[in-house]
Every structure is written in structure tokens, then in C-alpha cells.
TrEMBL record:
The gene coding this protein: leuB
Biological pathway: Amino-acid biosynthesis; L-leucine biosynthesis; L-leucine from 3-methyl-2-oxobutanoate: step 3/4
PROSITE patterns per the UniProt record, alphabetical: IDH_IMDH (PS00470)
Cofactor note: Binds 1 Mg(2+) or Mn(2+) ion per subunit.
Binding positions (NAD(+)): 76-89, 279-291
Family annotation (InterPro entries): IsoCit/isopropylmalate_DH_CS, IsoPropMal-DH-like_dom, Isopropylmalate_DH
Protein name (record): 3-isopropylmalate dehydrogenase
Functional note: Catalyzes the oxidation of 3-carboxy-2-hydroxy-4-methylpentanoate (3-isopropylmalate) to 3-carboxy-4-methyl-2-oxopentanoate. The product decarboxylates to 4-methyl-2 oxopentanoate.
Compartment(s): Cytoplasm
Catalytic activity as recorded in UniProt: (2R,3S)-3-isopropylmalate + NAD(+) = 4-methyl-2-oxopentanoate + CO2 + NADH
Length: 361
């Protein structure tokens, strides 16, 4: 099959991890006889430096024409003092919004061989397998007004949702729950926020259409606690943009590292932007230390969700599992008696594993 992939490396470790994932995608293409073509565009800080804007028009145009988009990460200390509309992060928010990628799927499933890599007790982490469905183009990140007022004496951010924005993400979460374990936890702050009270109403309405799904509501503070005390309790969590951002970094602890968590930012027609949950990690950028597995697993999600290539996606995921079973890991993972390698070496091991598994001829 022919597929055209746009790569947005971004800043910090972004170029390292997208390069690693590109190598794995090339291995998949060679092994399965696909023709993947790649086109790279700027976003974030590098786009500010070279083109004067965090989201150049040609980047958006290329993404609109792509079959799939793979993003590294944006941001870094160099751009932290720029005004809000010129920050690298605005590029990422802009591409999500302009492409209408309202649903961010963040699966959190630990690999058995990393059970002891988490700072949490293995008996707590064991058996956890959850999916955070994060609303991605509304809520506190996008509500207007958002500004400083009265000569810098007052400031406002707005948490706004339309009913239809809540409905479509709730629909997506039911869809996800039905192909998993039929359990949905809607996380909100309905004891304080009006937006959360409407969120609850929508979930209650929609649940009538899905009698096979067990539904509950949980306040976000309690959910944060339960995620690290009894994570196996959860199947699918659906939540507002910012709550989902925070809870997913917290949930990454279950897997041993933030460098392990992939995500898919999707809309109804199948187009998706695939991005690791982590950021640009300026503290380790340029040293080939970054864990590429979150981005490699994001590429696997692209194959599954946007290209309908589930066999190829499974192949990447089981190669990652084998490499971890062999105890190869990057510095962020604490693996007892393991072999620490660089990010590019770890990605190469994943490709080698797929090649040595060759059963197609
Ligand atoms: P971060 O996720 O970049 O890093 C947090 C910690 O996790 C750091 O210690 C980092 O070294 C480590 N880490 C992250 N990814 C790793 C990987 N793949 N391998 C090994 N270690 C990894 O978060 P931060 O430091 O709070 O933010 C840095 C910059 O990244 C900020 O400018 C922020 O806005 C941006 N950011 C971007 C994205 C994105 O583009 N999707 C996401 C989060 C943060
Ligand atoms: C993420 C990041 C982004 C977000 C930032 C960089 C805008 O933290 O993808 O989780 O908050 O959505
Ligand atoms: Mn985040």
C-alpha cells in the first residue's frame, strides 16, 4: 500500500525520537511491501526561528494532504519568554485545532518486563491497562477570553464547551469502551465547575444508548489518587482537555517512564496526528538518551488507526516487547541487570527484531 506520512520533528528530543520511529516505519514498509513516503515540516520553536511563526502555513497544508502525521515534541527554554501567541506550544495547539483532532487517545499499558521499573509497587501496577480519552480542542486550553487585563493586574482563562463538543468526545469514549472492557469512568470536577455539570448530563444521556457499558462519574482529585493506588480499577477514562493532560503524565508512572506513552490525536474520518505524550525534554536533548519507544508506539497507532494495518502495528508492538524482554533500555528506565543503550540503538534493536522475525517469505 502507498501511504504518505508527514513528520513534524519539532524541538528538543523531537527530531531524535521521530527519526527513530521513521526507521521503524521503513522497516515495516520493507517487510510488508508497502511504499511509505515521508515529508518533513517545521513546527514549534524551530519554525519560530526559521519562519517567524510556530505554525507555518505550508506545515498545515502538508498535514491536510497526508495519510498520517507523526509529531515529536515542541518547546524549550529558548522560547519560554515569548508572548503566548508566539510560543512553540501554540503551534501544536493550532495544528490540533485546525485539523479538528478533537479526541486524544492515550493508552497506558505496562510491559510485563517493566513491572519493576515503576516506582510504584508491582502489586499495584500489575494488571493495569487503561485508556485515557482526552478532549483535545476545547476546554480550558481554548476558551475565550484568555488575557491579561487592567495593566497586568487581572488575568483570565476560560473553560468553555459547547454541548456538541462534549457529545462527540463522549461518543468516542463509548466507542473505545466497547472494544475494550465496557467500563467508562467520566472524570470531572462537577462539585465546583458548571462545565463539569454539563459534562455529567451528557454522559448520563449518552449512557442510555449504551446499556452494555458500565458508567460512573469520578471527581478529578479522587481519580488522581486512584490512578496510583488502584490503576487496575480503570478501563476507559474520558475527561476534559487539561484534566486529561495532567492525568496522563501521572499515569505514565505505571509504565516505568513518560518515555513509554504513545498517543493518537484523531477525528471521525480517520486522519490522525500521532504524538508521544512526553515533551521536548530539554534536559537530555541532543545526547541520544531519549527513549524513542513512545514515538515508535505512536507510529504503531498510526498504522492501526489511520492505515488499517493491524498486523503491522502488532508487529511493532511485539518487537518492542521482545527488546524489553531482552532487557535493553534507555537511561530513563530502571531495569535491574539490564543493558542500557542509546535511543538510536534501542530503535535499531526494534527494527532488527522485526527483520529477524521475518515470516513473510
Ligand atoms: P517533558 O515531558 O519534556 O520532560 C519531563 C521529564 O521527563 C524530563 O526529565 C525529561 O527528561 C523526561 N522525559 C520526557 N520524555 C522522555 C523520553 N522520551 N525519554 C527519556 N526521558 C524523557 O516535560 P517538561 O520538561 O515539563 O517540558 C519541556 C518542554 O516540552 C516545554 O517547553 C513543554 O511545553 C514542552 N512539552 C511539549 C509537549 C509536546 O510537544 N507534545 C508535551 C509536553 C511538554
Ligand atoms: C501534551 C502537552 C501539550 C498539551 C502542550 C505542549 C501544549 O503537554 O501534549 O500533553 O498540554 O496538550
Ligand atoms: Mn502534557
Amino acid at each position: 500500500m502507498e501511504k504518505h506520512i508527514v513528520i513534524l520533528p519539532g524541538d528538543g528530543i523531537g527530531p531524535e525520537v521521530t527519526n527513530a520511529a521513521k526507521g521503524v516505519l521503513e522497516t515495516v514498509a520493507a517487510k510488508f511491501g508497502h511504499n511509505f513516503t515521508f515529508e518533513t515540516h517545521e513546527i514549534g520553536g524551530s519554525a519560530i526561528d526559521n519562519q517567524g511563526t510556530p505554525l507555518p502555513e505550508d506545515t498545515v497544508a502538508a498535514c491536510r494532504k497526508a495519510d498520517g502525521i507523526l509529531l515529536g515534541a515542541v518547546g524549550g527554554p529558548k522560547w519560554d519568554d515569548l508572548p503566548g501567541h508566539m510560543r512553540p506550544e501554540k503551534g501544536l495547539l493550532g495544528i490540533r485545532k485546525q485539523l479538528g483532532l478533537f479526541a486524544n487517545l492515550r493508552p497506558v499499558k505496562g510491559f510485563d518486563s517493566l513491572l519493576h521499573a515503576s516506582p510504584l509497587k508491582p502489586e499495584v501496577v500489575g494488571g493495569s491497562d487503561l485508556l485515557i480519552v482526552r478532549e483535545l480542542t476545547g476546554g480550558l486550553y481554548f476558551g475565550e477570553p484568555s488575557e491579561r487585563r487592567n495593566n497586568g493586574q487581572d488575568v483570565v482563562d476560560t473553560l468553555a464547551y459547547s454541548r456538541s463538543e462534549i457529545e462527540r468526545i463522549v461518543d468516542q469514549s463509548f466507542k473505545s469502551a466497547k472494544v475494550r472492557r465496557n467500563k467508562l469512568t467520566s472524570v470531572d470536577k462537577a462539585n465546583v465547575l458548571e462545565s463539569s455539570r454539563m459534562w455529567r448530563e451528557v454522559v448520563e444521556e449518552k449512557k442510555q444508548e449504551h446499556p452494555d457499558v458500565e458508567v460512573e462519574h469520578m471527581l478529578v482529585d479522587a481519580a488522581a489518587m486512584k490512578l496510583v493506588t488502584n490503576p487496575a480499577y480503570f478501563d476507559v477514562i474520558v475527561t476534559e482537555n487539561m484534566f486529561g493532560d495532567i492525568l496522563s503524565d501521572e499515569a505514565s508512572v505505571l509504565t516505568g517512564s513518560l518515555g513509554m506513552l504513545p498517543s493518537a490525536s484523531i477525528r471521525q474520518d480517520g486522519l490522525g496526528l500521532y504524538e508521544p505524550v512526553h515533551g521536548s525534554a530539554p534536559d537530555i536533548a541532543g545526547q541520544d538518551k531519549a527513549n524513542p519507544l513512545a514515538t515508535i508506539l505512536s507510529a504503531a497507532m498510526m498504522l492501526r488507526h489511520s492505515f488499517n494495518m493491524s498486523v503491522e502495528a502488532d508487529e511493532i508492538e511485539s518487537a518492542v516487547q521482545s527488546v524489553l524482554n531482552d532487557k535493553y533500555h534507555t537511561a530513563d528506565l530502571k531495569v535491574k541487570d539490564g543493558t542500557q543503550v542509546s535511543g538510536s540503538e534501542l530503535a535499531k534493536k526494534v527494527s532488527e527484531q522485526m527483520t529477524s522475525n521475518d515470516t513473510t517469505d
